[in-house]
Amino acid sequence: xxxxxxxxxxxxxxxxxxxxxxxxxxxxxxxSVDCVIFGFDENKLKVLLIRSDxxxxxxxxxxxxxxxxxxxxxxxxAYRILRERTxxxxxxxxxxxxxxxxxxxxxxxxxxxxxxxxxxxxHHKLSKMENELHWHDVNNVKDLxxxxxxxxxxxxxxLQKRIQEHPLGFNLLPKKFSLRELQNLYEAILDxxxxxxxxxxxxxxxxxxxxxxxxxxxxxxxxxxxxxFNFDKYEKRKKKWTGIDF
Length: 246
Prior knowledge:
By secondary structure, this protein is α+β, with helices and mostly antiparallel strands. It has two domains: about 20-165, Nucleoside Triphosphate Pyrophosphohydrolase (Alpha-Beta Complex); about 170-240, Winged helix-like DNA-binding domain superfamily/Winged helix DNA-binding domain (Arc Repressor Mutant, subunit A, Orthogonal Bundle). The chain has helices at about 15-25, 75-85, 150-165, 180-190, 195-205, 230-235; strands at about 30-40, 45-50, 60, 65, 95-100, 110-120, 135, 210-215, 225-230. The strands form two sheets. Strands 1, 2, 3, 4, 5, 6 and 7 form a seven-stranded mixed β-sheet that branches. Strands 8-9 form a two-stranded antiparallel sheet. The relative contact order is 0.14. The mean pLDDT is about 90.
């Protein structure tokens, strides 16, 4: 057995000075955040976009983003940027993916981290409207600035997957909702028409809807029953939840 004195230092061990030099070079890469905020309103799924302020992309729409400060936590930066661009404060952001193609930004090497959220537009009012900040129907989103079309598409697919894995959409509905409203929500997010009977059968089989013994009022169609989502029962089953197969 070799003694401590005989133990050799591996030849590939780097000195602190060498590592510091590498870090200095790496820090020439800027880091940014882009927020993809989806909103549900009037049975439509929308996304929040802003006019690009760069001359190269003049007139084109882009996602909400900005650079991260050197001493700033990445998650904190996402919330700061969203707040500064929109005024929104009580929004949950989920980190989705990192985009780092060398030529993705005209200013140089900028790696961006995409964050995503899904909100009820009526519950979150925008307090800042610079650069034509505007809600857009997701079906009309195309040719965004930078590589934002790719970022948008990635987050949209992630959202569609997530809403089938977990019942996220119930937070977008009134406390008491009809099955028509529930189906409209899922159809808007998944961008597909669903069979009415099959849709209702699947949700009833999960046994997570509470019949309120009430019906809709003042609606232009035949009034339907009103239900509530059983959040307590879902929390108990959460670990065993297998998702919704449409």
